[in-house]
Amino acid sequence: MINVWKKTKELENKIDQYLDFFIEASLHFKEGLSLYIRNVIDKFEEKSVIVDGLESKGDAFRREIENVIYTELLIPESRGDVLAIIENADSVLNKITEVMIEFAIQRPYIPDSIKDSFETLLNYTDRCVQEMVSATRMYFKNIQEVRNHIKAVMHYEHECDEVGNEMKKKVFLDATIDSCCKIQIAQFVKMVQEVSDKAEDVCDRLSIYVIKRMA
Amino acid sequence: MSFIFLLGGLVLGWSLGANNTADIFGTAVGTRMVKLRTALIVASIFVVLGAVLQGSNTTKSIGELGRINAIGGAFTVCLATGLTVIWMTRAGFLVSITQALVGGIVGWTIFSGDFINTSSLGQIFEAWVISPLIAFVLALLLFKLAHSKIIRVKLNLFTIDYYFRLAFITLGALGAFSFGANNIANIVGVYIFSNPFKNLYLSGLNISAYQLLIFIGSLSISAGILTGSEKVMKTVGERILKLSPLAGLVVVLTQSIVLLIFSSDIIKKVLVFLHLPPLPLVPISSSQVVIGAMIGIGIARGGGRLVNFGVLKHIVLAWVITPIAAGILSFFMLYFAQNVFQIVVKYPVRYQIDRVVIEKLKSEGLDTSQLRKVSEKVYPNGRMLKMELQRISNYSRGEINRIIDISRIDSIIVDSTKLNELPEKWFTPVETEALKNLHGRKYAHAWQMWEDLSGAEYFINYETRKDSTELRKKRELLTFLFRHTYK
Q1: In A, residues 81-100, which contact B (CB 8 Å cutoff)?
Q2: Are the beta carbons of B86 and B13 closer than 8 angstroms?
Q3: Which residue segment(s) compose the domain that B459 sits in?
Q4: pLDDT for A152-194, tens place per residue?
Q5: Domain that holds residue A196
Q6: Residue of chain B with shortest Cα separation from A68
Q7: Residue B137 located in a structural domain
Q8: For a Cys staple, B265 with which of A214, B9, B394, B467, CB 3.0–4.6 Å?
């Protein structure tokens, strides 16, 4: 039993560390894209590399967590749910990395008229991911708190949609921007919005697992 | 012959282990909190430890089979009961050893033509109905309470999981320990005076024949756990209701509480003090309690939608079949043992309403004028006396039961040297002294010996000092010991 206790504590730490990667990645994502729209490309590229590294590390941690849960037969009742939460959360990290890489490859043109809105969108996206991480942490530590964080995620995701849609409208109404660019910008705004969508998906699943545990 | 007789106990031991481990570890294994292998190993070790370390000292009883007055009869009933349980266990039924044992003893009583005390049998049946109901209500309330508390606990999911595992293993080990301690008497207690083993001296270690008997008996339970408990374990843990770890723990906890309620004199006294009907202190079945508790949780969680009532129907059916089957099998096996193998399976128990019986009944406030017609007449069995009393008097059923109880001829000869055959600590020095003072006395009825013992100061103190369950067990043991027909 001492061995199981040791493994339990290690696993708790691993999950906490795994979730820390999301916080870090989300902050680097926000700062990196903020640098990008201010044309500080070399710093943005540094951030992009960091996020990519975090994603790889996250994958390794995820596999390790799944392995321990299965081999040590821990939390038999919630095992499936926890693994699904971890897998779902991973899609957020993947999306963040994907967006950063696409920005680095395609280098889309961001007009001045939407730069402020873009900063706002990034802030909301970051808040959304942070709240998703808090909700996930609370699922493990204090289940009654999960609901509050899920509510916050819903709110920020909605804000992301509003700001993103406004940005797209503004871009398409701007006659000075080339049609090709318009489509590309809209596509990139949508990609950023998808980060918060993924976070919301995680929370949707999470709320079902909470009901299961509370029932 | 002694070894063959012991075989009956060992078969019963095996079936006990195979069947009852599910009550202790079934939910832990069913919720996958404890691996089956771990559960089997822990249970088999702690059963032996409980029997060896605790069983010989604290049980101080020769078990339920002590009611049978011939060792050959006890062996046959043991074997019949064990076989009934094995047969039911093989079919995946969660049966109760207690029920089977009571059924077997009733089978012997009918075979021996003796009188069945319907009021005490009624109490046992009553307890069999009430105990799962109490478990049902208790588990329902406990689960609701525990669930509302657990969702407020600010502990990591994995830490809670660890504590649950620890609780399952600890409660399981404790349960197996007390299971061994409390049941070993039922397995080998009755063979205490026909012990096939001799005292053993192993490099300075002195192992008494009785300790060896206990050890071998506990090994039979252990073997039952290791080789036959898996199927019943699955029935408890998986088939009736899918349990959460919390629900599994509530079941184990409810089981301990209900078993305590039905064996505690203090709780009985509290109920009487509160003007509530006292619960009878009779052997109840832990399997029934577990099932009652599981249904309670099923109702608490989903209003009964989660309970597999098909499986449940089978289990309840098994509760009805088990004592009947054990009784019938005992009856026929006793017939064969007596007539084919020439084994003495019963000594006749006669009944006589003599002068002392009438005096005793008078002192209890009974109108004895109706007994004049039957006084001094010897009846070959209780059934005939009962029929006679029903014919000539208008006594109530309870009064008739009491008259028959009092008039039974036990043929007691107090031989205090027999006390040396018992393990140490079963009787205190004061108790031994009181019994030595009665050495050589003869009593027609066992109650006369109690009266003489109650006259001694120690028994007056004893009544107030110790619980009456222990006193009852000691009385049964002494009747068993000094009944000169036994052996």
Answers
A1: 82
A2: no
A3: 412-482
A4: 999 999 999 999 999 999 999 998 999 999 999 999 999 999 9
A5: 2-214
A6: B158
A7: no
A8: B467
